């Protein structure tokens, strides 16, 4: 991007979501999210343990193992996956720290495509648009279908590049 080119609003707010992600202490996945009404920033959040509780950097990740149906070379297979379940997800924290009336008709910018639980909560939160960057394949079809049924705009920014330095800091 040339120096004189002004950032568009999508880039601006997704950049701020990435900045929020740098606060996360989970080394396995660092996610940031912001709430935007019109062009006004109304909240920011990242994934983390509840306040006053040791986080992943202090207590280590809390690993849960589960089997997940995945398409491997055109075949559906059960694949064992590990996830950290210590943290409240960024989207959930965003909902905990914003008001319902602020969320009505608002947009959520989030670094990663929401998981099923977050998508379900966002669908009932009053927001009317979700913009994400990194894909998250688990339950993706279900999430996309949910947003369609609910009439929530669900889109990704394909040509978006996170701020230099930030992505090094939060990469998995
Ligand atoms: Zn963790
Ligand atoms: Zn989630």
TrEMBL record:
One annotated GO molecular function: zinc ion binding
Cofactor (UniProt): Zn(2+)
Entry keyword Coiled coil: no
GO biological process: pyrimidine nucleotide metabolic process
Residues at which Zn(2+) binds: 89, 115, 118
Span of domain CMP/dCMP-type deaminase: 8-157
Superkingdom as given in the UniProt entry: Bacteria
Coiled coil start-end: none
Protein name: CMP deaminase
Originating species: Chengkuizengella marina
């Amino acid at each position: 991007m040339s120096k004189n080119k002004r950032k568009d609003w999508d880039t601006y707010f997704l950049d701020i979501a990435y900045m929020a992600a740098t606060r996360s202490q989970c080394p396995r996945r660092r996610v940031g999210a912001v709430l935007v009404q019109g062009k006004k920033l109304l909240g920011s959040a990242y994934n983390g343990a509840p306040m006053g509780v040791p986080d992943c950097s202090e207590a280590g990740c809390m690993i849960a193992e589960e089997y997940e149906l995945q398409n491997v070379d055109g075949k559906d297979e059960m694949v064992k996956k590990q996830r950290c379940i210590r943290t409240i997800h960024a989207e959930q924290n965003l909902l905990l720290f914003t008001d319902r009336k602020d969320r009505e008709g608002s947009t959520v910018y989030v670094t990663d495509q929401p998981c099923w639980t977050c998508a379900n909560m966002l669908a009932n939160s009053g927001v009317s648009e979700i913009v994400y960057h990194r894909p998250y394949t688990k339950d993706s079809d279900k999430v996309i279908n949910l947003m369609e049924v609910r009439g929530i705009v669900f889109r990704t920014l394909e040509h978006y590049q996170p701020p230099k330095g930030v992505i090094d800091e939060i990469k998995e």
